[in-house]
Amino acid sequence: MGVTEARFSDTQAGIPLRPIDYSEELSLCDDSDVDDVIIVNATYYVFKRQKVWFQIKRYGERVYRTNVTIKDVFPNLDDDIDAAYSEESNDVYFFKGPMCWKYKLINITSFSLYSGYPRTIDNDFPGIPSGIQAVTKVSAYRNGFIYFFKDNLFYRFEPKRVPHIRSTYPRLISDVWNGIPDNLNGCVYDPRKKWLFFFKGLNYLRFDMVMHRMSYNGTEQKTTAEDFFDCVPRP
Ligand SMILES: [Ca+2]
């Protein structure tokens, strides 16, 4: 273990952080289609099958991460989640089939399940169907909207308003999110940069919520492995 890795591991609740590794049995570099991504306290959590990766940038240095099983960090959560998002309070919601799970942050590698969960999505999010593919909360707007994506449709859920979903929803993704494909793998909103990342297959797109358009010109579609996870191409 190198000096830098040792420094990170001292502060991270006993789970050592290290650069991503091609030798991992389930590598995000070789197979970078994710189940979903969330940001809690400026740390990215990437979910895929039975694993979660942390992505942390400290002291202006490169990104370090580790992979552990979902159940190590989120007790009683199912593998192969459909989708997940985080609240400003750092609570985290997961969705799979008709069910949702709600967790409270303890520390970066430890969350506790609220009592009464899992329960059906309709309990907490009336009007949202089962089988959600991607979800994120966008705090750029007053009160914050939660966007749920499924197939070619999306729902805008307003936590502070009843009914939570206006009668004009669901709407077509292609009608509102210019350039964003249907059947997403996941999405996450970065409140610091006001960017929305959409993940699909081995690629992602970055949407600027201030300008309400793709945030870079030309080749909007980037590879998740090399451009998001900083994987070094194999020689
Ligand atoms: Ca998903």
Write the SSE topology.
Blueprint: H1 3-11, E1 36-40, E2 43-48, E3 51-57, E4 63-64, E5 67-69, H2 70-73, E6 83-86, E7 92-96, E8 99-107, E9 110-113, E10 119-120, H3 121-124, E11 134-138, E12 145-150, E13 153-157, E14 171-172, H4 173-176, E15 186-190, E16 195-200, E17 203-208, E18 213-214, E19 222-223, H5 224-228
Antiparallel strand pairs: 1-2, 2-3, 3-4, 3-5, 6-7, 7-8, 8-9, 8-10, 11-12, 12-13, 13-14, 15-16, 16-17, 17-18, 17-19
Protein name: Matrix metalloproteinase
Hemopexin repeats: 78-128, 129-180, 181-231
Pfam families: Hemopexin
Walkthrough of the structure:
This protein is mainly β. 11% of the residues lie in helices and 37% in strands. The protein is globular and about 55 Å long. The two termini are 24 Å apart. The N terminus is likely disordered. Bound molecules: calcium ion. The site of calcium ion has 8 residues, from loops.
Shape: globular
Q: What is the succession of H and E elements?
A: HEEEEEHEEEEEHEEEEHEEEEEH
Major sheet summary line: 5 strands, antiparallel
Number of helices: 5
What small molecules are bound in this structure? calcium ion
Give the percentage of residues in beta strands: 35-45%
Mean pLDDT: 82
For this entry, what is the oligomeric state of its chains?
Answer: single chain
Structural class: mainly beta
Over all CA atoms, what is the radius of gyration?
17 Å
Count all strands and give the number.
Answer: 19
Tell me the distance between the termini: 24 Å
| Low-pLDDT residue intervals, each spanning 5 or more residues | 1-14
- Work out the helicity level: 10-25%
